[in-house]
Structures are given as structure tokens and as C-alpha cells.
Amino acid sequence: MAEKRLQLMKESWKQSAGKVLETYAVEKRTGLTEQEVSRRRTRFGTNALREDSSASVLAILVNQFKSVIMALLAAASALSFAFSQWVDGTAILVAMFINAAIGFFTELRAVRAMESLQKLDRVSSRVRRAGEEIEVGAEEIVPGDIVVLKSGEMVTADIRLVETSGLQADESALTGESVPVDKHTGILKEETPLAERSNMLFKGTAVTRGSGVGVAVATGMETELGFVASLVKEAEEGTDPLEKQLNSLGKRLIWVVVAIAAVAGGSGVIVGREVLLMIKTTVALIVAAIPEGLLVVATVALARGMHRMARENALLRRLSAVQTLGSTNVVFTDKTGTLTENRMKVAEIETAGGRYELQRRNENEGEKFVRGEDEIDIGGERELHELIRTAVLCNNARLPQEEEEREKLDSDADYLGDPLEVALLEAGESAHVRRSDLLFEKPLEREVAFDPEKKLMATYHSTGESYLVAVKGAPAAVLEISSRIRTRDGDRALESEKKEEWVRRNESMALRGLRVLGFALKEVDTVGEDPYEHTVFLGLAGILDPPRSDVRPSIEACREAGVRVVMVTGDQEHTAVAIGRELGLIAEGEDGVVHGDDLEDPEHIDESERARIMRAPVIVRATPKQKLDLISVHQHEGSIVAMTGDGVNDAPALKRADIGVAMGRRGEQVAREAADMILTDDSFSTIVTAVRFGRVIFENIRKFVLYLISGNLGEIMIVTAASLLGLPLPLLPLQILYLNAINDAFPALALGMGEGESWVMARSPRERSEPILTRILWLATIGYGALIAVAVFGAFLLMLRMRGVEQAVSVAFLTLAFARLWHVFNMRDNRAQAFRNEITRNRFMWGALVFSSALIAIAVLVPGLSKVLSLALPDLTGWLVVAGFSIFPLVTGQAAKFLAGRAKWG
Fold this sequence. Notes:
The protein is α+β, with helices and mostly antiparallel strands. Among the domains are: 2-52 and 115-234, Calcium-transporting ATPase, cytoplasmic transduction domain A (Distorted Sandwich), CATH 2.70.150.10; 293-306 and 691-905, Calcium-transporting ATPase, transmembrane domain, CATH 1.20.1110.10; 345-400 and 409-544, Calcium-transporting ATPase, cytoplasmic domain N (3-Layer(aba) Sandwich). Helix 24 links the parallel strand 24 and strand 25. Helix 10 (241-270) runs antiparallel to helix 11 and helix 14 (382-393) packs across helix 16 (419-430). It is elongated and about 120 Å long. It starts with a helix and ends with a helix.
């Protein structure tokens, strides 16, 4: 498909308009005949993006059960049913289906990027056919159609322009270009990148000014938009790190289960125990080895994280996305609308009187003009006032008239006109120069539309006896037609040396990432006089899409958290570098810029070039394919990548990244559908909040996994040791299952509700390969399990000698129950204080401990239940033994934490 698309289009921008018309066998004035349209539609198909079938509800449901843990739980349930453990088997099934239900309803609205791309096709176009201009549906356009476009219309095919009149197009959604692009009909070089093909219009973009006529050179999936759609489809959506880690943990548990069955069952039979009893004990141990509550607790913890993040303006499409973002170590971010406000603003103005900056007073106040460090009164600055007046007069944009109306606006769509002209009007508002007032005093008599070749525009305004001509355009073009310059002491001759000085000023402003416009004026006697001769030069205005005020602190917070932020944009290098420097992405004196073309062949990049790409904080002129390659390069090096974006061109990368983050307010629908997380406030700072939530969530998951498995391991050690020593079983199968139902639910769930410690963002991100339980944590798990086993086994032996088997089993049951409850306090961070930490501050934990203690008491106090569980009410000695031995794992664990923390932190 890609080769066919290139074959259709590769000649279009490098050949003349006449040659393209000849290639497509069409006349500009008459267009195609209906017969030829029908023939070409049969050959090329409809002008629509290919529609893929949506994931069915059943498929989404089935996906919830595709994990090793789910398979182990299903096996445990089956074994329970096989040996008539109906309550146990049913309880495990309920846990499975609760987890599946939460995941199912959360992920029901899965990624449907192709569907949202289809919405871009539901517009109409005007075409010339058989000598008549008619309106047809976008899907009816065929290659060779002559398409007529004007301001405000969507482009419905890839079009080679053959006529233009002041034509500009907004291509930011496709290319990342932050300002509208001037269009012409000239010939370009074959190697011209997509963002610079100024004789082309592309499907899915919009005409912002002027009019044009062109020939459709590609339709449907053969367009640039179709190519992006194919990338979205082909982009692999990898398994989440959390899913991989849980699956890895599940696989390890399989071997644990096999070993338990072999050792415990075999040893029991060897020492002469009843075979049926050992079979039931083996089943109980297998169930004990599997933390039934793991998936439920993980799902609930993630779901709570989702709800909390929704309150912080971040909507998650998948449960595990919040944890994934927490482990991210590289954030690729789009520039326009994410790091910047996506609204052009006049940043500075240079006149003969000096350089002025336009700065915001306070967050809720207007803007002020500043020269140096001092605010100036614009009324006393003649040159500045006249430049602003000229910029407002020579303008086709419109601002809302009423302040109330303006406060309701939330997008550029509410402002009519070229964003650059809107910025000039807003600067006029700051100087109390309004277009409506000026036009009342100096009515518009004539307009000379912007000429892409001359790069100039002019308007004539009546002053009563003469006419004021306001001119704006490219600085070089304005300087060329100017013979004088306005100064505080009057107009002076603009000599060639002075013009060269202003050219250098223009270049300096451009290097700072500003879009620069020049301004001039003159007075004439009639509206028929040439506007572009002997004008008076007024100065330059530098316009910039300014950085969002909250971004730089957020980038610094990411840096402190060990997360690299990389700007990836389709915009020009000067603009991107200026924003990068202002936001602190690029240090002074550092280059740090990589061009998208450097990513053309990522599989054959040498090591030095790969290292340069990995270090680069700014990537410019990046195409959708190059963004995919960039993500692949970083993922190949082990990075966990988050990608932010808002345009069609970002959709494939959003899907390929470990987590895609789309803008909710300004983002295209296709970008939102391809993403895992949507920022409803379009704020980069929300990502920092999400990173913190993600890290806290993972730490919580790690804590309750450690808590659950260490407790279950202690149970296994107890029963296995008794079997090997030929002693009575300290714990019976149903007792183990009852305790697991208590301890695998409430305390573990409370651990998942933890708020995290304050230093969670001071840690470096985890490595991609780091499992939930590292080698050190596995050793801790075994150690904690051994502590619990020693405590329970010690209490059992003591009571066996003092009171006999029945009391010994009951004391062992209670010791294990309370030892596991108190063990939850061992889950605190080593750096945290023993009595003031995230565990002790967790109100859910205290509720869980009280509720679980009540359930344990019920087990021995309620006659019916105690009989089923084969428990007897201990005497005072038994309760003292329970109290003394159950506290042993907590005291020992806290002592070990104190020593470990002192050794590491001093």
C-alpha cells in the first residue's frame, strides 16, 4: 500500500501544475466527466479510510481471563470442587469473576482509532465535473478530480495546487507545524519533507485563509492521512509492564505449587499419614500457595487510582495504564498545545525607539508592555503605537466583542482568522487599540489580499482628505519597499546600511523561535495608487506560541524523579529550540537537537548516532513514521516510554508507546481513541501527578504481593515441617482457607489504598526488567514467611506439650491469624519511622484490622463455625501464648528494618 501511495504522489510536488494535470488527464476548467469518475472510482475505490471491525463485547470479556494467575485460580477452584470443597471452590470463582468484571467494564471502550478516523470523512467538497462546479460527498472524490477550496473548508483528499489566492492551511494535526502554512503552485525538490510541501494540501487539514484550485492526486488510504491510519493499525500495542510482571509471578507460582504438592503430599504418605487426609492437605496447600486475592486487590488498587486521577483531570482507558506511567523513564511530548498554549501571542516588538516585550501582569490580569525592566505607557511611544495601529488595521481576523463572551472561549475555533492576525489584535487590545474603533475613525476602503509571492498585504483607510495605507508582511519584503523609517524625531531615510541592521534584527528574532512580521504605512491621495512603493517602515513584531506557565516546574519535577522529557515535534528547528531553551529542556550552549530524517533507518544506526538520539532533548521535523521509530529505539534500550500528543500525526506513536497520553480538550478524536490516558485539562503538569500516582500504586502492589505471599509461605512451611517431623497437623485445610479469605482480602486491600511516602518522586524509575518481587524482596518474603512459621510452630509445640492436640491446633490457628495481621506493619518503607508511616496513617488499614480481628474471634466464639473449623476456645494460658508468639514476627521484622535503614541511610 505504501509503495502504491508513493508511486501516485512522488511526482506531484516536484513537477509543474501543468504536468500534473497532464498526468491525471484532466482539464483545469472542465474537470472529469461522470463516466471517467465512475471508471476511476472502480479502479481506486471510494475516498474513505478502511474500516476495521470493532472488538466485540465477548472478546473484551475473554481478554480479562488471559493471564497465568487466572489459570492458577481456575485450577485451584477445580481441585477444590473435585474434593468436595464447595465453599472454597466457589469463593475462588467469585474472586475471579469480580476481577474480570472490574476490568471488563473499565476497558469496554477499547481503542477504536480507525472508527474515529472515519469521522474525518463526513464532509463535502466542491469539484468541477463536465464543465460545472458541483458539491459532492468527500467519499466521492477520485484521483484527478478538480477540487475548489476556500477559507474555512476541510481538505478531503491530497491535492496538488494549480491556482492559489492568498491560500493558507492549518496542517498542525498532520505535520505538527504550529502556524498556518502559505501555499503556492510552484515546483519543489523531490526530497522536500512533508511539512514543507507548500504546493500541496492534505486530507484532514483545513484551509484557514484565501482560496485555491487543485487536482486530487491521492484519495482514501493512499493519502497521507490514510498512511497515518495504516500506521495506527500496524503499531503494536505491547503488553503492559504490570501484566508482564504478574504473569511472570504466576509462572513462578506454578513451580512453587508443584514443589509443595510433591514435598508435603509425599512426606505425609511416607510417614504413614492417612492418604485421603494428605490429599486434602495437599489441595489446601496448593490453594494456600496461590494468593487468591492478588488479582482482585491489584484491580481494586488500580481502579481506585483511576478514580483519584480522574479527579486530577486524567482519564484512564485501561486499569494498568496508571502503573505503567509510574514506571516511565522517558516522556515524549508534542510541543503545540501540550508544552505551549496553542495560541499565538505577540512576544516582542522592535521599533526605532527600542525593543518592547509584552508580558502578563498576573494570572488573572491583562498584559503590559515592558522596555528593559520598566513598564511603559504606550501613549508616549509614538513608533510603538503606530505599529500596533497598523497591525490592527491590516488584519482580517476577529475577536469576540464582549468580555463575557470572551471568558467562555476555550479554543482557537472561537477566534476567526489567521492565528497570527488574532495575536496582533490581542496585542492591540492590550494597548487599548481596538479594530472596531479604528475602523469607525478610518473606514476600510480597499484591501489588497496577501500575495504569497510578494509576501505582503495592504489595506486602504479613509482619513477624510487622503487615505492611510497599512502594510504588513515578511520583514525582508517590507524593508525592500520602504524608503523611510519612523522615529521619535520624525521620518528618516532608510539607507541600505540601516536596512541590513534590521535584517540582522529579524534574523536574531527568528533564531529565538519567533515568527516575525514587518509593518509599514504611507499616505496616498487615491485608492488606486500602488501600496508597495516608498512606504515608511515602522518595525518588527515577533510572535510566538508561548509555553504554558506550569510546564517548566513540571519538567523540573520530572527531572528530579529521574524521568527524561523529550520534545518531539513536526515544527521548525528554530521554534522548537527556542521553546526547549525557555522550558529548560536544552541548556545554554547545548545543541541537543535531532532531525526526524536522522531516524529514517533505525535498525542500521551506529552506536554513536544511537547514543546521540538517546540523549537528545528535542526532535524536530518528525513524521508519524519517525515518531514510531524513535519510540522503538528507546524501547530497544529498555526504556518505558510515555508519548503525549493531540493530532492525527501523533496517533500511531500514542498506540506504540508503553502508554499514550492524549489531550482531551484540543486533541483530535483519533488521538484520544489511540491513547491510554486522556488529560481533560491538556496540562503537562497532570502527567507529573499521574507519575506520582503510578509509583504509589506500584509500591502498594509490591507491598501487598509481599504481604500475601510471605503469609502464604509461612503456612506452607508450618504444614510441611509438621508432615516431615511426623507431628499432628498444626493447621487443617479448611482453617487455612478461612484465614486466607480474611488476610488475602481486607489488610491486603487496605495496603492498596496507601497514599505513599513523600519521597516517592525522589526515586529513580524502575528498570523495565525489574519484577514485582526482586531478588532482595524474595529473600525478605522467605524471611518473613520463616518468622511467621517459627512463631506459629513454636506456639503449637508449646501448647501440644501443655494442653494437647485440640488446644494446640486452636492456638496455632489464632497465632497465625494475628501474626499475619500484625505482619502488615512490616510493609512500611525502610526509610519511614516505625510509628509514623504510610501504614499507620492509612485509615483503611485500621478498619481492616478491626474487621479482620472480629472475623477471627467469631471463628472460635460462634459454636457452629468453630465446630466446622475444628476449633476450641483457648484458656487464659492459650491466649497469652497467642499474644506472645503472634507479636514475634512484627518485633523481629521491625528490628531488621531499623538495622537495614540505619545501615543505608545513616
